[in-house]
Amino acid sequence: MKMRKKGLILILVLIMFLANSHIAFSQTQNVTFNLKDINSDEEISKAVVYISVMDVSSERYVYDGAISMNNSINLALGEGAYKTILEVDLPQTPGIDYYRIHSFVLNGAAGQNVQDVFLFPVASLRGIVKDKLDNIVGYADLRFECVNDMGVEFPQTTTKFGSIAVDAMPVGSCKIFASLGDAVGYEEINLNQGQLMDMEINLDKSIVAPEKDDSVIWTIILILAVLAALFAYIYFILKKEKKLEKDVKKEKRVEKKIEKLEQDIGGKRAEDIIPTLNAKEKDVMNHLFLNRKESSQARIRHDTGIPRTSLARVLQSLESKNIIKVEKHGKLVKVKLTPWFLGKD
Question: I want to staple 203 with a disulfide (CB 3.0 to 4.6 A). Which of 56, 88, 183, 338 is the partner?
Answer without folding.
Answer: 183
